[in-house]
Amino acid sequence: MTTTSGSSSDVCDEAYVLDAAAFFASYQLYLTKNVYTVKEVIQEVKDSESLKNLQLALSAGRVEILEPGGAHRERINRLAEELNILSKLSKADLELLALASDLTERCGRVVVISDDSAVRRVATRIGAATLTIKYWRTRTRQK
After folding, report:
1. Nearest Cα to Cα of residue 103 among 2, 30, 20
2. CA 35 to CA 85: how far, in whole Å?
3. CATH architecture of the region 2-139
4. Annotated domain spans of the chain
5. What pLDDT score does 134 carry?
6. What is the three-class DSSP state of 105?
7. pLDDT value at position 33?
8. pTM, 2 dp
9. Are 83 and 121 in contact (CB under 8 A)?
10. Which of 28, 51, 74, 87 ranks highest by number of CB atoms within 10 Å?
């Protein structure tokens, strides 16, 4: 995992991985630490209000932009192919999921915040919990 902005710790209790829907809802303003995303998601945030709130969180150090390791990209691509949903995932989705995969090795709990059902499906398969914006509901994989 490469740090693009800020610095992540090697081990954390809980990490939140946000996709664009979370930034549209300004969810990052409600979380105080261990909030991560990828540059591809940042590039999707274009409306002025969401962009203003995102820039505020970035400048305050409340959101870190990270780059996942290559092995995690490969893992996510394989898993999405196995689930037959690779075509439903954008490059930003794949990068976000690779980051979540990377963080599952370093953090006790990883929560992916997204309204995208394909993203949530892959996230639960890698052991991450998911939270939807629309319904504010957390899901974890059933063992």
Report:
1. 2
2. 26
3. 3-Layer(aba) Sandwich (3.40)
4. 2-139
5. 76
6. coil
7. 82
8. 0.86
9. yes
10. 28
